[in-house]
TrEMBL record:
SUPFAM superfamilies cross-referenced by the UniProt entry: Undecaprenyl diphosphate synthase (SSF64005)
Cellular compartments annotated: Endoplasmic reticulum membrane
Keywords: Endoplasmic reticulum, Magnesium, Membrane, Transferase
Stated role: With NUS1, forms the dehydrodolichyl diphosphate synthase (DDS) complex, an essential component of the dolichol monophosphate (Dol-P) biosynthetic machinery. Adds multiple copies of isopentenyl pyrophosphate (IPP) to farnesyl pyrophosphate (FPP) to produce dehydrodolichyl diphosphate (Dedol-PP), a precursor of dolichol which is utilized as a sugar carrier in protein glycosylation in the endoplasmic reticulum (ER).
GO biological process: polyprenol biosynthetic process
Family matches, as InterPro entries: UPP_synth-like (IPR001441), UPP_synth-like_CS (IPR018520), UPP_synth-like_sf (IPR036424)
Cofactor: Mg(2+)
Protein name as it appears in the record: Alkyl transferase
């Protein structure tokens, strides 16, 4: 499946989307796409097929977000911790990532027409030269697009991001570019992988797990949290609308308190 897909919403689903859009819509949503392997086990298919279904769901979810007017999406695609999985599974995931980034480049006209800017955040030094090259081409190709932003966290953990940020600041002080007295939260935020993005308004985790798995821990201090009791490949527009509605109700409750 392509990164950008045609709308598959029914008339009633489109109606509900328009109703939700009458209220406050998150500007930035982050997704922890959990449950691909359990979906594969549940449906008795290979793990690789579960991951393919997970990517297909990502493409579908991105289209829903575009239709809802959500300008920025960040997805947790691959944790550094995932390198600890079996060699076969890691190789499968890297092969899938390579294929999908090549697909993105092959379909650049559609991506450019949608005005989507692709950013990859993470420790890219851990990836193969081939994959790094494709990622660089994709980010450079779309860097001037401003209609929507997709941030893909790949070879990422918050701990790695925070350590990398600290190292950057230390290096800046050593070279005389920074004064120790100028180090504060704002400077630290400006040195994160996500410095080009606003903090997420909402974070959605699928699979029913109640944890963040070392994802955007610095950035989500004020984010609305939604734990969806569904495996990622089974996530649907109704789950997304429910999360947005719950956030809206929470905002209303806060104003009334």
């Amino acid at each position: 499946m392509s990164w950008i897909v045609d709308s598959s919403l029914t008339f009633f689903q489109k109606f509900c989307v328009n109703v939700i859009k009458c209220g406050p819509i998150p500007n930035h949503i982050a997704f922890i796409m959990d449950g691909n392997r359990r979906y594969a086990s549940k449906t008795k298919v290979e793990k690789a097929e579960g991951h393919v279904k997970g990517f297909d769901k990502l493409a579908e979810t991105l289209q829903w977000c575009l239709e809802l007017g959500i300008k920025e999406v960040t997805v947790y695609a691959f944790s550094i911790e995932n390198f600890k999985r079996s060699d076969d599974e890691v190789a499968t995931l890297m092969k899938l990532a390579t294929e999908k980034f090549q697909k993105l480049l092959d379909e650049k006209d559609r991506l450019m027409a949608e005005g989507v800017c692709i950013r990859i955040i993470g420790n890219l030094s851990l990836l193969s030269p081939e994959l790094r090259k494709l990622i660089a081409e994709a980010t450079l190709m779309t860097k001037h697009n401003k209609k929507a932003f997709l941030n893909v966290a790949f070879a990422y953990t918050s701990r790695d991001e925070i350590v990398s940020t600290a190292e950057t600041i230390v290096e800046g002080v050593k070279k005389g570019f920074l004064d120790v007295d100028n180090i504060d939260e704002d400077l630290f935020s400006d040195c994160l992988y996500t410095s080009a993005s606003p903090e997420p308004d909402m974070i959605v985790r699928t699979s029913g797990e109640l944890r963040f798995s070392d994802f955007l821990l610095w950035q989500i201090a004020d984010s609305h949290i939604c734990f969806a009791q569904v495996l990622w490949p089974e996530f649907c527009i109704w789950h997304l609308l429910a999360c947005i509605f719950k956030r809206k109700m929470g905002m209303t409750g806060s104003k009334g308190s």
